[in-house]
Amino acid sequence: MSVLDTKPPAGIADAKAAAASLASSQHRRPSLGLMIGQPLSVVVVLAAWAIWRSQAELDSIEQRQLDWGLLGRLTVEHLKLTVVATVIVLAVAVPLGIALTRPRLRRAAPIVVAVANAGQAAPVIGLIVLLAIWLGFGFWTAILALCLYAILPVLRNTIVGLQGVDRTLVEAGRGMGMSNRSVLGRIELPLAVPVIMAGIRTALVLVVGTATLATFIDAGGLGSLITTGIRLLRYPVLISGAILVAALALLIDWAGRVLEEITRPRGLG
Amino acid sequence: MWDYITERHAQLLYQSYQHLSLVIQCVLLATVLAVALAVFVHRNPRVVALAGGVSAIGLTIPSFALLGLLIPIAGIGTATSVIAVTFYATLPILRNAVVGLAGVDNSLIESARGMGMGAIRTLLRIELPLAWPVILAGVRVSAQMSMGIAAIAAYVLGPGLGSFIFTGLTQIGGANALNSALVGTLGVVLLALVLDALLLLAGRLTTSRGIRA
């Protein structure tokens, strides 16, 4: 791992990719602390917050903003943004990554990754606002911004994962009389799954965090509690929003980690 | 758009300077903090996993949520954005510094000791210079991330180009909304490129000659 990391990345956006590869090249099993301790502490914090919420004396504005029904709706909106954007990213980036590792398009891979990298260098809030000016406010504009922002890790990891498959295994598959399709489906993809899944988790975490900003273009989500809290200077609303967003992000990160473990092919240990 | 830029070039330059200066100062502070923490972590193997976990969890927390949590403590304005940007900038550097220090060949440290170097001199003359390229890669990740976070921090009246983006947002429908948002966004991209080039240059100048590629 250290050999890989000592090479200083060449371009600006490569720096971020280096971080991504740093995260994804850790094939060690995640520690017990991360797998159990993290969700447990999130649940404890959430429980403490819920107890506070049900007992605190709030003024009428705070009560309206922290109404349980509203909180539930915002959480669902936030999850919807996260899941829809991630599913679209998956549906686009994984096939694109597969296509870019096939012999015919292999040469285009560095160009596509460079373009995706360049897009990543733009501040996401600028991307969201520009898209909103262009396409108008709303859910789908936010989804587009989230997808553009999160496509790189999945695309990149799909390409890296497929390229990392031992050529001799592919040759062996061919030698056994497998077609290109079954080599891809039964050898290359299963072996690349851990790297691809690491990219998907990175994308999930990026999306759930960035979805906080969706409130700026009226696309909902828990970020609205934070903006409302700041606008009305109601600290209870502000802090509740921040706690809920952080808790949701950590739970999504954990879910991604669990998914990574479940989808890891048995043979890879 | 050109008219927009020439009309407001003074404000634009000022905010660009503020943005860059915020990021540079925070990243510098973060580098010092992260390297110090990494040295501590490196000396105490038991906390390595803890540092990794803290780093991963810290980067998971959305920046907008952290800004929200900081407002009651640090108020609206520069202090909040400095704390938030420094917090996020520290994490990738910390991670890389731990990896970099762990990657230093033990036999080199042994020979330094054998030559009569003390622990501190070994650290300053052997370990840190050898780990420096890895640390610097972390610094570059931090710098780019900080550019984006500083832009978001403009919502809580932090300094920098983010204010142009939020002006564009509030004036949507108005004549200059697009110009404002575009200038802010492209400005941040440009600053990020400039800073990255500077860091590359700094890397060449500060990397020990023996391990220069």
Structure description:
The complex is a heterodimer of chains A (269) and B (213). Chain A has helices spanning 2-6, 12-24, 32-55, 60-65, 68-99, 109-120, 124-135, 139-163, 167-175, 180-210, 223-231, 235-263. With 269 residues, chain A is mostly helical. Chain A is elongated, with a radius of gyration of 21 Å. The model of chain A is unreliable at 1-26 (pLDDT under 50). With 213 residues, chain B is mostly helical. Chain B has a single domain, classed as MetI-like fold. Helix content of chain B is 82%, strand content 0%. Chain B contains 9 helices and no strands. In chain B, helix 2 crosses helix 9 (177-206) and helix 6 (106-114) packs across helix 7. Chain B: Pfam families: BPD_transp_1. Chain B: Belongs to the binding-protein-dependent transport system permease family. Chain B: It comes from Kribbella albertanoniae. Chain B: The chain crosses the membrane at residues 20-40, 47-67, 149-169, 181-202.
